[in-house]
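Review form for a predicted model. The reviewer records the input and the model, then writes brief findings.
Reviewer: anonymous (R2)
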Amino acid sequence: MLTRKQFLTMSAGLGVGVLLPEVLKAKRTYAASPRLSKFTESLPISYPISPPSTLDIAPGKHSFHSSLGSFTTWGYGGLSYLGPTFEVTRGTPVKIRAFNKLGTHPLAGSVDTSLHGVNASDITNPRTVIHLHGSNTEPDSDGYPEDTYLPGQSNVYNYNNNQEAGTLWYHDHSLGMTALNLQAGLAGMYLIRDEDDPIGGNGPLGIPAGAPYEVPLILQDHSFNSDGSMSFPAKWDHEFYGDVAVVNGKAWPNLNVDRTLYRFRIVNASNSRFFRLKLSSNQQLIQIGCDGGFLNAPVYLSKLLLGPGERADVLIDFSTSLPGDKIVLQNDAAAPYPKGLATVIDQGYFRMPEIMQFTVNRGAAVPKAIPIRLRVNNPLITKIATKPVRQRNLVLTDILNSNFQVLAMMLNAVYWHEAANHPELREQPKVDTVEQWNFINLQPFAHTMHLHLVPFQILNRQSINDTAYSAAYRATGPRKVLMHHAPGGDTVPYGYPPLDPTPYLKGLPKPPAANEAGWKDTVVVNPFELVRVIVPFGAKATANLPFGNSFTGRFVWHCHMLNHEDNDMMLPFDVLP
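Model under review:
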């Protein structure tokens, strides 16, 4: 079994022409979607509403573009695709009973029973479970991937919303089926409000809240068949990149905007694609919040990077734009990120240079002041001063077969079912303690790592000598696999726990970017990089935390590139009393 790094090293030594043909044989050829006009569809907007006591998860008929027909998709709360935007006030608990009313999967031809947890019955009798991403939630309501329920069944979710205002989102989290279920439509936004950002606006920051100037943007990429139905590979592949930008369920939409300040709540809900967003007008994106809530102060950006699962709270000032101006939200991120076609094994994926358009309405300009300080009633974010009780080294890798096909994406070279059944292979922090987690990426493209239950702070990033570290790490193995029928055979190349990376680090640590210096739950880990994060596992772990609960129980941590988490790049962890 080989890792992708080893394959690339071999390619460099033997010449790309020797090994690339075998890779191309193994790669799927993606058919292009039908040609669609850009910026002719109006952006659908789900303005925030109070969450209901019951929530249907059901099929509907949806058209992504006027040139495409209407086809079966899935949605929440009566919508044909995606779900309503919910808003709640901090500290006000919500109880929602969700009913699974799903039918045959819209992507039935792509249900891959070789993935863990996936059965043929998922085609006609699909499981679901909801994860409220970014929520400090009790384990029974967190959306554990095996806590799924079938059509005709329901589940109760208790959210006490005891955390600062922030941009959360809810989505399916079924083991082995998350990618397909999100692609089918199971995602929506969930906003928590507080004194700094009250429902209806009129807060101390003077920023929009609700209609018409606060707009949620759920970013995805899709592919379509010639008949206009959704297209997705029939068999699992390590990434998926569509060739059509979809925002709030419409292909390359347009939003007519007044000449004033807008607030956009943006979530990257794509499978694998990173977005590095910019405006064609070259005006700045003003980021005021990240995953877990407000930053200390606005960050003015020419470009905004969002990996899968990340969110951004962004202001755009259209008051200086002229009536009739057309401003395109552009994307210059390569796929796979960050080097795209320079990554030999990942040839042939699509770039996506345009996402949506803003058309400026007629009317007088109404400029609004940009707040200087974003935390009026909440404490300023300062580096966690409590010393971690433990450091954990967490390695991102994969396993290839002799034909250089990816068999599984892995964390710590441990399979999901191994960790689920063997506590010695799980991380087990104690409640109300602080730990440092070190994510080590040994792969030639970036990942986004997501931790359930609690937010964290990024400490720094540092390059690693991946060749030397991989060799030393491999020398700790092989390890006998503690499950039957593992994709890579009876052993994995590495021992457990992962090796200390300290002797293999290069250069000096780099602090997080200004727009990452807030509370995060999802972090980009670049190729051949170590990212250190500091994690408070409970409200009493240290001072000035943005959440109020200390829960024990089982949760998960995983890569938020959806095809990765569906094929073992997700593991459970236990918060112990």
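Findings: Residues 436 and 534 are 4 Å apart (CA to CA).
Further findings: Residues 390-545+547-575 form a domain with the Immunoglobulin-like fold (CATH 2.60.40.420).
Recommendation: see findings above.
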